[in-house]
Amino acid sequence: MNTKKQDKNIKQEAAEDVTIENQPDREKETIEEKAIEPAAKKEEKKSRKSSSQKKLEELQEKYDELNDKYMRLYSEFDNYRKRTAKERIELQKSASREVILDILPVVDDLERAIRSFEEHQLSEEARKGIELIYNKLITILSQKGLKEIEAMEQPFDTDYHEAITNIPAPSQKMKGKIMNVVQKGYTLNGKVIRYAKVVVGQ
Length: 202
Fold this sequence. Notes:
This protein has helices spanning about 1-95, 95-120, 125-145; strands spanning about 145-150, 160-165, 180-185, 185-190, 190-195, 195-200. By secondary structure, it is an alpha+beta fold. It has three domains: about 1-95; about 95-145; about 145-200, Head domain of nucleotide exchange factor GrpE (Nucleotide Exchange Factor Grpe, Chain A, domain 2), CATH 2.30.22.10. α2 packs antiparallel against α3. It starts with a helix and ends with a strand.
């Protein structure tokens, strides 16, 4: 009976020894597990952060690309708007060009008629009537932007004058200057629509 009790006590002591021996290893494993867990969490967080950063960078790139496209489109549209506005103004200014060019010979004829009345001392009343019509016509054309090119005794300028002939200048002062105007020249809103035909001193 005593032998059985002794055996039982020995076995219990042996088991306790084994438990005591194994305990530090288990504690070690638990500590290691605890150490590994935060490291894994950190890695996971890092991975998530990296993924978020990538997405943010991709979105930023898309935003920059779209913004660049928008700015280019806006710039092109603004240029187009300015160009069309300028063209419209130019068109309004020169829309009457062809009509005025067709009227200019009538103006020339009226001027010749007035000179004829003065030279031949014809009816004063008729001359005044023609002058009235002429002045009204010139006023209307001036309002549309028509302006006579100054020529008589001016230095010859190919931008405004067309020389039909050269004659000897009566003085050194008149050399290279316009001696006579055969046909008046005109500008419309600053642009030449008909060059003045002139005789130049040489």
